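Fig. S4 source data, part A: sequence.
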Amino acid sequence: MLELHSRCLHRPALLFARTPNFVQSRRNLLTLAIETSCDDTSVAILQKSNHAAPQTQLHFHQKITANNSAHGGIHPIVSLESHQENIAALVAKALHVLPNTGSSKPDFISVTRGPGMRSSLTTGLDTAKGLAVAWRIPLVGVNHMQAHALTPRLVSALSGSSDNAAPAFPFLSLLVSGGHTLLVHSRGLTDHAILATTTDIAIGDCIDKIARLVLRPEVLKEGGEMVYGRHLERFAFPNGSADYNYIAPTTRAEEIARKTTRWGWALVPPLAETRSGSKSKAMEFTFSGLGSAVKRICEGKENMQDEERRDLARESMRLAFEHLASRVGWALRDLEGKGIGVGTLVVSGGVASNAFLRTV
């Protein structure tokens, strides 16, 4: 079981004979936050007031996404160049709102330290370190996945609907994106345990690859944006939930059963078959086999019609999402058996926008 942590990467304030403002008084905390873990360059200014009526206020937030459309996926060099081109301008725009906060500078800098693409992370880290040294304030490195797990509580705090942020601890987070697939048990602000992760590729990567295999080139071009998973969902379910016709499996045997379609092919559920059988109920995710199976079907049928393509898209998503759901169910039962109650499951990441996933 792995743990997620944030840590102070650099404390330039210790170089000077001066106590940082946030140590002298914790009634107000103001941070400049920088995120460059992938292809988004994002800068924000956030303030937390610990008065009688606690308030959290987002004074500034803007992001710029690298244009990777020509590469059919995220290209490290294109993303790096986008970070280098845009980060200074975004920081400059953020600084214009500082007078509105009542401060001339932040109390500390927050920056993503990982996980992510190394070259992209370095751009944000170097910028943050330079600002921290120039301002003589601390620098806090933030774990990207820990931030994902806590985002719902930030959104709750920003809404100001209650003095207590929701969801309450403990809760489970299913982080599903193009780069990550994690099931996390959050027990406190800095207490998170990874219950399951992918052994190969992330579910978002798998869905994107399936979309490029199943969808005709003209369908992908019509979509414009490089959000292949969204295009696949729209193609599979043109009428939305009215097209689902989904019945959840009631047993493990039903879940892993091969279902031969009217077209003669059948997709094998992830981890349904292993040489020893030991991994059939392993607390892990795997998606590369599903993508490979779809590729073999598509390559074997050059003139596949849209009706069959639609069935293939639906079946692919069903198996991928049921694979996620089974591990969530096992985790909940395991925690319940240990006397640990979990009242909330948070689903976040790009794949969380898929309405069929939420149905499954």
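Fig. S4 source data, part B ends here. The chain is about 40% helix and 20% strand.
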